[in-house]
Amino acid sequence: MEEKLIIKGNNKLHGEVCISGAKNSAVGIIPAVILSDSGCIIKNLPDIEDVKYLKELLLQSGAKVEEGNPGEMKIVSKGMRNYKADFETAKKMRASYYFIGAFLSKFGRAEVPFPGGCDIGIRPIDQHIKGFEALGAKIKVEHGVIKARAAELVGAPIYLDVVSVGATINIILAACKAKGITIIENAAKEPYIVDIANLLNAMGANIKGAGTDVIKIKGVEHLGSCEHTIIPDMMEAGTYMIASAATHGDVLIKNVIPTHLESVSAKLREMNIEIDEYEDSIRVRGEARPKAVNIKTIPYPGFPTDLQQPMSVLLSIAEGTGIITESIWEGRFKHVDELKRMGANIKVEGRVAIIEGRHKLSGSPVHVTDLRAGAAMVIAGLAADGETEISNLKHIDRGYENLVGKLKKIGADISRVEK
Ligand code: EPU
C-alpha cells in the first residue's frame, strides 16, 4: 500500500526546528572517504534515503561501515577492491557519479552506471568527463555504464564550460592524488565544495581556493584518516524559512550557517517577511501577507534553484505578481500543475513562471514530481485551507530527514498514512 502525507492546513508554524547535515555535502563526502588509505569518521550525516544508497554502494565495493551515534558513520576504506558500482543501487540517485572520481583516484579504474536522481531537466555529465580526460583518463560508455581507466592521473588545467557543483567535486576527487597540479577554473562555489575540500585536506590533500571560482589541487601520494562534521543543510533550512513565512508563522531555525542563506533571507525581507539572524540560527516571522517579488536562480551565492519550487508557493499567496526565471534546470516547473490543483495562478513559458498571488490555496490531492517539488507541496498544504493529500513520497525521503516529526514539533497538523 502506498504511503501518503495528510496535511490539515491553515496552522501558523511556531517554535524551534533543528536543521540536519547537508544532503549535497554528505553525498560527496561519503565517496570522498574512499580515497583514504585507512578510513574516516563522519558526523552529522542526515538520515535520508540518498545516504542509505551510498552506504550500500560502499558496502558493495568492499568498504566496512559502522554506524555509531545518530548521524555518525565510521567508514573503513582500507582493503576496498571493487571499482564497479552496483547498477540497481547507483541508478537510484544522482550522486553515484562521485564514485567515478573516487574509484579512478583509488584504483585507476571505475565502472559506474549513468546516474539517476530528480527528473528536473537534461542532466549531462560532459564536464565531469572533460575533467577526467584532461587528467589522463580514457572514458567509454557501454550498456549504460560509464567506464573510466587511467594508467596514471596527471594534474592539468581544466576550464568548466558551465558552473557545475558535481563536476567541480568529481574533478577534485580525481585530482587529489594525481601527479602534479590541477587548476579548476570557473569552479562552482557552493558551501558543499568547501566542506568536501575541508574533509580531503584534513585527510592530507592539498586543495586551495575551494569556495572561489579557481581551485588549485596539488596531488599527494597518500590520504589518511580524519573526523569530519558535515555542514548544516541550507536547502532544508530554506524550506523551513519559507514554510514559516507561508503560514504567517514564527519559527527559529537552529543549527544553520546564516551566511549560506543570505540570498534567501534577502528575498524574504524584500517580501516583507521579518528575518533575524543570530550566530547559528535564523528567526523567520511572517506576520504580514508577503509581497510579490521576481526571482532568478543562479549558482551560489545567487538564489538557489533548489528553493525555487518552495518559493513558487509563497509567491502563489503573495500580494501582486511575481516572476521566477529558472536558469539552471529547464524542467523544474513540473510541480506547477500540482499547485494549480490547489488554486494557484501560474503561467509557465519555457524557463519563466509568472505567478499571480491569490489570498489562499485550497487543499487537494497532489503528486510529488521531484525532491524540492515535494517540499513545495508540503508548504502549500501547510498554508492552504482544508486537507491536502500528498503522494509519491519517495522523492521527499531522499532528501529530508524526519520531515513529519520536525513539522509536527512546530505545530503542523501532518501525518503519514498508508492509503
Ligand atoms: N551541467 C552540464 N554538464 C555537466 C554538469 C552540469 O551542462 O557535466 C549543467 C546542468 O545541466 C545544469 C548546470 O550545469 O544546467 C548545473 O548543474 P550541476 O552540475 O551544478 O548540478 P548537479 O551537481 O548535478 C547539484 C545538486 C542539485 C542542485 C544543483 C545545482 C547534488 C547531488 N545535487 O546537482 O541538487 O540543484 O547542484 O545547485 O549535489 C536537490 O538537492 O534538490 C538538487 C537537485
Explain the overall architecture.
- The chain has 419 residues and is of the alpha+beta class.
- The chain has helices at residues 23-32, 49-60, 87-90, 98-107, 126-134, 165-175, 191-202, 234-246, 262-270, 308-316, 336-341, 371-383, 394-397, 403-409; strands at 3-8, 14-18, 39-43, 64-67, 73-76, 109-113, 138-142, 145-149, 157-159, 181-185, 206-208, 214-218, 227-229, 250-254, 274-277, 281-285, 295-296, 321-325, 345-349, 352-356, 365-367, 387-391, 413-418.
- The protein folds into two domains: 3-20 and 232-418, Enolpyruvate transferase domain (UDP-n-acetylglucosamine1-carboxyvinyl-transferase, Chain, Alpha-beta prism); 23-229, Alpha-beta prism (UDP-n-acetylglucosamine1-carboxyvinyl-transferase, Chain).
- A hairpin with a 5-residue loop joins strand 11 (206-208) and strand 12.
- The longest helix is centred in the middle third of the chain and has 13 residues, at 234-246.
- It is globular, with a radius of gyration of 21 Å.
- Bound molecules: uridine-diphosphate-2(N-acetylglucosaminyl) butyric acid.
- Uridine-diphosphate-2(N-acetylglucosaminyl) butyric acid binds at residues 24, 27, 94-95, 118, 122-128, 162, 164-167, 188, 235, 305-306, 328-329, 371-372, 399.
